[in-house]
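Morning. Coffee machine broken again, so started the prediction first thing and wrote up yesterday's gels while waiting. Chain of 244 residues, entered below exactly as on the submission form.
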Amino acid sequence: MLLEKWEKLPPEMRTDEVREYYDILAKKRIGLFFKRVSDILLSLLLLILLSPLFLILAVAIKFDSKGTVFYRQVRVTQYNRKFRIFKFRSMVSDADKGSLVTVREDTRITRVGRFIRRFRLDEIAQLINVLTGDMTFVGTRPEVPRYTERYTPEMMATLLLPAGITSLASVLYKDEAKLLDAAEDTDKVYTEKILPAKMQYNLEAVRNFGIMRDIRIMFMTVLAVCGKEYGSGVAGKDEVTYDR
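Came back before lunch.
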């Protein structure tokens, strides 16, 4: 994972707000290199080991509802570049013609979809994106262009690194759908309240980038999927905390 020269960044990222974070990452080029090497090796290993599960999910999804096995949506990753994310389809076809935010009792979710979303199985297809370099294991979750277009200049700093499968913000907001259930306008609540709050964690993650931190968050993610609840204080003394 190489950090582009400052002059080669897209114009919208060459700002004073982003430069502060860029300079921090520029001092960690060796760590970035090993992060990419570990992404390739681990994603390849997991794709081989989980291939039987991929097959089971594919069959279940096809039998449950009409449509493709994978859901391919345009998201934004490193350097504000667009890519198509891989996810096992958990909603009816053409579900993204409605709101881009999903609530807990969303009627667009299929029967199999409810199961795979509960255990985050829809996300494991993103191992393909990690292998190709569009994503990494730990990093800011990829948003759709509609939301990244509303990023503040400082938020753009999160695009210095590839989008991730998981992050501290993802762990703390794993029940994000519950927060949106009572909202009349889910898109507005997400962009004005939830997204800015999550971005505080994502920006701190760029500041405090490190392989050991990534490993810690990966373990936290596994525990969170298994039911563990995280609240205030989990982020550590050098990061923002979150109170439920």
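The chain is about 45% helix and 10% strand. Going to sketch it on the whiteboard this afternoon.
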